[in-house]
Specification:
Helices cover about 40% and strands about 20% of the residues. The chain is of the alpha+beta class. It has a domain at about 5-90: RNA-binding S4 domain (Structural Genomics Hypothetical 15.5 Kd Protein In mrcA-pckA Intergenic Region, Chain A). It has a 5-stranded antiparallel sheet. Strands 1-4 form a two-stranded antiparallel ribbon. Helix 1 (about 5-10) packs across helix 2. The protein is elongated. The relative contact order is 0.12. The mean pLDDT is about 85.
Length: about 140
Amino acid sequence: MEVRVDKYLWAMRIYKTRSIAADACKNGRITMNGVQLKPSRTFKIGDRFSVRKGPITYSYRVLQLSENRLGAKLVPDYMQDITAPDQLELLELARMAGQTGRDRGTGRPTKKDRREIETFMSDSYLDELDWEEEE
């Protein structure tokens, strides 16, 4: 049995839709042995392929074939993740860099910032201030 590349990538939940999987193939993001794969190419059991998503290249081995989309818990029975440790390290570094948050004063105000602004702009806050009248 053989399964088309785009159908397998969709069934194994690597891509959300089959058309996105086909576009990834056409754009050269799916390779096997250094050769770019077309969406119509077929996978066999034991094939190894790579998927480039952003700066990370994931590597997988086909254990079983399926044309139907699987539940996420069943995917490890059909496909083995053999991604190199250095690629996983890049992924972890990207996650850590993304958790730094935004600098105060940049971007849209947070809910807390908005509440402070509303308190500042309210009439009751202005009434609390002691205004010295000049004579």
